[in-house]
């Protein structure tokens, strides 16, 4: 019997409710349907001044410091952000600036973003992948981008979204399981 995958989802949204959080919740549900997981959802806007006022990691409040440790100790990370001025939000970048430089090395990361139109669909390739490449993470081949037309409020309407999420999850679960086994010192077949 394998242990549950420890999945931590980081959402760079600036408020609740959020379309980006709705997408991440779907991704977590899809993961849970495929394999046993222990999940945690971190909405960065809820971390407060103990996070936003910290210029360095040792200045973080307890809640924000624990959130960073959870990401670094996760077996799988979901990194999701709304598009803000063509890229990720400042809160999102600030959080990952504070992650230990090697805290995500060889860690599988599922990338997701939401934006106002399809014009921002390449944010995953042009902003998110380079950030996580610097952190030496293993990013899943399929990222998930949704535009405002895929939603009614925070309800996902587009049935193709479910297929994209399923494909991304199918890609990442075997890798997350294999890398978790390697970190635990178990032989990988």
Concise overview:
The chain has 189 residues and is an alpha/beta fold.
Number of helices: 6
Helix content: 40-55%
CATH level-4 homologous superfamily: Flavodoxin domain
Q: Strand portion, in percent? A: 15-25%
Q: Report the C-alpha radius of gyration, rounded.
A: 16 Å
* CATH architectural type: 3-Layer(aba) Sandwich
Structural class: alpha/beta
Annotated CATH topology? Rossmann fold
For the record, give the distance between the C-alpha atoms at the N and C termini, rounded to a whole number: 16 Å
Give me the oligomer status.
single chain
Low-confidence runs: none
Q: Which sequence of SSEs, written as H and E, runs from N to C?
A: EHEHHEHEHEEEEH
Q: How many structural domains in the coordinates? A: 1
The number of strands is 8
* General form: globular
The CATH class designation is: Alpha Beta
What composes the largest sheet? 6 strands, parallel
Mean pLDDT: 94
Summarize the helices and strands and which ones pair or pack.
Layout: E1 5-11, H1 19-34, E2 37-43, H2 49-52, H3 62-73, E3 76-82, H4 90-98, E4 108-115, H5 123-134, E5 138-139, E6 144-147, E7 151-152, E8 155-156, H6 159-184
Parallel strand pairs: 1-2, 1-3, 3-4, 4-5, 4-6
Antiparallel strand pairs: 7-8
Describe the protein in words.
This protein is an alpha/beta fold and about 190 residues long. The protein has one domain: Rossmann fold, CATH 3.40.50. Helices cover about 40% and strands about 20% of the residues. The strands form 2 sheets. Strands 1, 2, 3, 4, 5 and 6 form a 6-stranded parallel beta sheet that branches. Strands 7-8 form a two-stranded antiparallel ribbon. Strand 4, helix 5 and strand 5 form a beta-alpha-beta unit. The relative contact order is 0.17. The model has no long low-confidence stretch (mean pLDDT about 95).
